[in-house]
Task: structure prediction
Amino acid sequence: MLLALALLAGSLFAQQSIPAGGATCTAGVAGAADICLAEHEFAQAEATRAAADRRRHLQAALDLYRKAASAASDVSLKIKALDEATRALDAMHLNDPAALELTLRDLIGLAPNDLQFLFRLARVQEDQGELDSAEETLLSTRRQQPQELEPYRMLAQFYARRATRLSNQVAQAKPPADSPGVPDKDGVYRVGAGVLPPRRADEPLYPEEAKAVGVSGMVAVEVVVNEQGVVSDAKVVRSVPLLDDAAVDTVRQWRFRPSTVNGQPVAVRMVVNVMFQAPNPGN
Result:
């Protein structure tokens, strides 16, 4: 008799020690008690400030939610346990995206018509950079329920985030309009993108040979003007027969006021045009 009373008292004490958790704490329902204990652990985690203690309570809650989902015979109770487990796994708590994705897939298997779990899975995939997978998950919700508005709305938001992100990446990759850009391997800047062309400090010399044969035309020459304003390299990029050598010889005699970057003279590469016009016969 005493033994029976002791067992009864122990049973009553155990039931009273389970924290209240609403209808899911119903005595005798498989998994219900573990959900109640898990909710208690989760509340303890939210109440503590010590990181180690918080994580310990969260892990205990997660283990209990998983245990409840495994033990429960009622599908709705399994869904509740796994849904609560996702809360413990999210970025604000244990921050375990891989385990969170697996748990969401378990929920999708239990409730295939409940699109909220697919939407949440897509967001986890997107946050992890799995953009193609996230897009396909959202597209599957549209194919599954093509008459529902929410899949289209979620897809629109996904594409808007993608467009914004890509736009920002392009903007960051493009140098500002006034940026001097980057010099080449020889330390030479290209005129443009914030580097102004050097200004000529003299007048072009018209070769006597060109005058003698009466050849006219414009030769385009790519030149490198160094920090002293001297043409250190020159090559023809648009030719006029009989005038190319004269054009190169001419530009090598030109002197410039150097271009500057951040107030310092720099070597620059640019294209200059050398115009040869034959003198009038009467002159």
In short: The first helix runs from residue 2 to 17. The two ends are 139 Å apart (CA to CA).
